[in-house]
Write a structure and sequence with these properties.
The complex is a heterodimer of chains A (about 300) and B (about 325).
Chain A: E1 4-17, E2 22-37, E3 42-47, H1 53-61, E4 68-73, E5 76-77, H2 86-91, E6 92-95, H3 109-120, H4 125-138, H5 155-167, E7 173-177, H6 185-202, E8 205-209, H7 213-219, E9 222-227, E10 230-236, H8 237-242, H9 247-254, H10 264-285, E11 296-297, E12 303-304
Parallel strand pairs in A: 3-8, 3-9, 6-7, 7-8
Antiparallel strand pairs in A: 1-2, 1-4, 4-5, 9-10, 10-12, 11-12
Helix pairs in contact in A: 3-5, 4-5, 9-10
Chain B: E1 4-17, E2 20-33, E3 37-42, H1 48-56, E4 63-70, E5 73-74, H2 80-86, E6 91-94, H3 98-101, H4 108-119, H5 125-138, H6 144-148, H7 157-169, E7 175-179, H8 187-204, E8 207-211, H9 215-221, E9 224-229, E10 232-238, H10 239-244, H11 249-256, E11 304-308, E12 311-314, H12 328-332
Classes of the chains: A alpha/beta (about 300), B alpha/beta (about 325).
The complex binds adenosine-5'-triphosphate (2 copies) and magnesium ion (MG) (2 copies).
One adenosine-5'-triphosphate sits at the interface of chains A and B.
């Protein structure tokens, strides 16, 4: 039994319409996603913007209702209402994509970071203060900043407040939704090093959502690529970066910006070639609704949504 | 003068903390030409957004000193009504935080239509709706007719960001400030948005200030790059020079932090990112982060030196800078 098992997860949002405001259709935000993550590993979720990554993460932590499918955490089905116990919630935490809107603007940082502690642990005021100052130090914010309000911080500083809150309870699984996208590369490096350090220390597991493929490559053991609610490819880091098979994965990797300004012209040409291949074989890889086909194994670790007809 | 679009001189923007004002942007002087992309990179909290907000006249409680001229018109202390007319028309901004830039209670389409309405009084409502759909298409939003009627919380992070981009480019501004325009986007859509920005530059010779942490995006987009640290510009150069011959120790350290193949620990800049109140105001502001460099290497009052044509570096310490032989343990949590 795996640590985290997600089986055929579907999250569909109703589209209302017409004069009676009835449900006329559904947005299939997540449409049949299956994966498992071993304890202590980092599982990367990347893909198109709007493809359902955040929704998948929110469904795992119980913030979105699930249309169908199962989420098993340490063998327990946590999708059924009655098992949504306090303890499971304590073990799974999320770092939210939007650092500002996920922080209550009227609360001081100390109260924001203390919230999970107050919900789950009985600490004296002094102990609490001490824990929070340790946490702030861990994420690289000056201890005196705990008395400030979110709007007094820069975007990157806010993101670190979110990280501090997520690790406050020493959870087992952290869903990290773009945890470092608001940070400069040096602070990014700090937070990523730190995430790896506490991973080793606490045997933490990460579901790591990011658009930055350089970071995903650095952090993740296994990676899945999402497109319109479905997986198009899943494999080890090596499978995905050294041997991408699906045309969407190839296109994604080709679009990674190059840090050498002299390569602009070459990059442009290369992307045009990949784009041509993409357009040429689009009809093979996607059905009439533009959705990917089911996954097929091409090795022990590597699954690809290969053309359905072939 | 002919080609200059924006001229910033000795701009200082200060926030009030307690009884005192503290400068988040400290004596910044910059020019931006038409048809130019100026990249701004810098430490988180170094004042990039504060600079952008100053140009847009969007700070409501900060003290702003110095001069910001857009095509010879002084923007500092411009009457709010006049600033409102310029904003969204001649100059526009893509905000770093899309949720705060959008009205949570208003349909997406109406928010974009509103931007059009403010500056195109002669457009019929039908034309306006068509233009909104066109803009949503341009930023790569699928099913634009449907998204037109959605609310911000019903969109993914990247879709929201694209809505903010659609609003910013709606009236083809001559000056576009893009504050982390593509961080919430996957790289294929990022490439599409960057093309749109390039097109704005080609079509109407717009000047663009591109603030981003993504050094790859800077390398692919910018003509010139300014590097900020602790409220100041510490280095400015054309893009190839900056990547191939970076001089300031902060710039070098930043480039050094990018994850490289097969790296175990990422390189981190030691020490604390100082808060506004504790910014070192005297001497070289980066000195505390490179304590192994001898004090005498720094200037007393560091200024920008032109080391080659168009390449400016602050302080003299760059001539003496080197990376220490790693004592890894000490390095790991450069955060404190
Ligand atoms: N509460 C909601 N009501 C209706 N639709 C929703 C809701 N939440 C998400 N969606 C839709 O579900 C789809 C997937 O959204 P999600 O936020 O999971 O994408 P994502 O992969 O995280 O994208 P991004 O990379 O841009 O953050 C989108 O089409 C979005 O509009
Ligand atoms: N309204 C405010 N009141 C007080 N301090 C503020 C305010 N807004 C910003 N600051 C402070 O000013 C400094 C500069 O902030 P700014 O948002 O410009 O940083 P930034 O360079 O854009 O950072 P990031 O890359 O993280 O977005 C930071 O120290 C921040 O905490
Ligand atoms: Mg998301
Ligand atoms: Mg900012």
């Amino acid at each position: 039994m795996g640590f985290l098992e997600v089986e055929d997860l579907k999250v569909h949002f109703p589209i209302k319409g017409g004069i009676f405001n009835r449900t006329v259709d559904y947005i299939k935000a997540v449409d049949g996603v299956t994966f498992s993550v071993e304890q202590g590993k980092t599982y990367g979720l990347v893909g198109e913007s709007g493809s359902g990554k955040t929704t998948t993460g929110r469904a795992v932590i119980g913030l979105n209702d699930i249309t169908s499918g199962k989420v098993l955490f340490e063998g327990t089905d946590i999708t059924s209402k009655k098992s949504k116990t306090k303890n499971v919630r304590k073990d799974i935490q999320m770092i939210f994509q939007d650092p500002y809107s996920s922080l209550n603007p009227r609360k001081r940082v100390i109260d924001i970071v203390a919230e999970p502690l107050r919900n789950y642990e009985n600490l004296s005021k002094i102990e609490e203060r001490k824990r929070i100052q340790e946490l702030m130090e861990m994420v690289g914010l000056s201890p005196e900043s705990i008395l400030k309000y979110p709007h007094e911080f820069s975007g990157g500083q806010r993101q670190r407040i979110g990280v501090a809150r997520a690790i406050a309870l020493k959870p087992k699984l952290i869903i990290a939704d773009e945890p470092v996208s608001a940070l400069d590369v040096s602070v990014q490096a700090q937070v990523l090093n730190f995430m790896q350090d506490i991973q080793k220390e606490l045997n933490l597991t990460y579901l790591f959502i990011s658009h930055d493929l350089g970071i995903v490559k650095h952090m993740c053991d296994d990676i899945a690529i999402m497109y319109k609610g479905r997986y198009v490819e899943q494999g080890t880091k090596e499978d995905i970066f050294n041997n991408p098979q699906h045309i969407y994965t190839k296109r994604l990797i080709a679009a990674i910006p190059d840090i050498n300004p002299r390569n602009r012209a070459d990059q442009f040409k290369f992307r045009q070639e990949v784009q041509k291949e993409y357009e040429h074989s689009y009809d093979d890889y996607f059905d009439s609704e533009g959705l990917a086909y089911g996954l097929q194994p091409i090795s022990d670790t590597h699954l690809v949504a290969l053309p359905g007809k072939g | 003068m002919g080609n200059e679009l924006l001229e910033i001189k000795n701009l200082t923007t200060s926030f009030r903390i307690g009884d005192e004002y503290h400068a988040a942007v400290d004596d910044v002087t910059l020019t931006l030409n038409k048809n130019e992309v100026l990249g701004i990179v810098g430490e988180s909290g170094s004042g990039k957004s504060a600079l952008a907000f100053s140009i847009m006249g969007l700070h409501n409680r900060a003290k702003i000193e110095g001069s910001i001229k857009l095509k010879d018109q002084e923007l500092v202390k411009l009457a709010p009504s006049k600033m409102n007319n310029l904003r969204g028309d001649d100059l526009a901004m893509i905000f770093q935080d899309p949720l705060t830039a959008l009205n949570p209670l208003m349909e997406i389409g109406d928010q974009i239509a509103e931007a059009l309405l403010l500056h195109n009084l002669d457009m019929s409502s039908k034309q306006r709706k068509a233009r909104v759909i066109e803009l949503l298409n341009m930023v790569g939003i699928p099913r634009p007719e449907y998204v037109y009627e959605q609310f911000p919380h019903e969109l993914s992070g990247g879709m929201r960001q694209r809505v903010v981009i659609a609003i910013a480019i709606a009236n083809k501004p001559e000056l576009l400030i893009a504050d982390e325009p593509t961080t919430a986007l996957d790289v294929t859509i990022q490439a599409q948005i960057l093309d749109l920005i390039r097109k704005l530059k080609e079509d109407i010779h717009a000047g663009i200030i591109l603030i981003t942490h993504d050094l790859g995006v800077v390398a692919e987009m910018a003509d010139r790059v300014a590097v900020m640290y602790a409220g100041q510009i510490v280095e400015i150069a054309d893009v190839t020079t900056l990547f191939e011959n970076p001089l300031h120790p902060y710039t070098k350290s930043l480039l050094n932090s990018v994850p490289a193949e097969g790296q175990d620990k990422l390189h981190v800049i030691q020490g604390i990112v100082p808060s506004l109140k504790n910014l070192p105001r005297k001497g070289c502001r980066f000195a505390a982060r490179i304590p192994w460099i001898d004090e005498s290497a720094h200037e007393e009052n560091p200024v920008l030196h032109e080391v080659s044509q168009g390449h400016f570096v602050r302080c003299t310490c760059h001539a003496h800078f080197y990376f220490p032989e790693e004592s890894k343990e000490e390095q790991t949590n450069g955060i404190s």
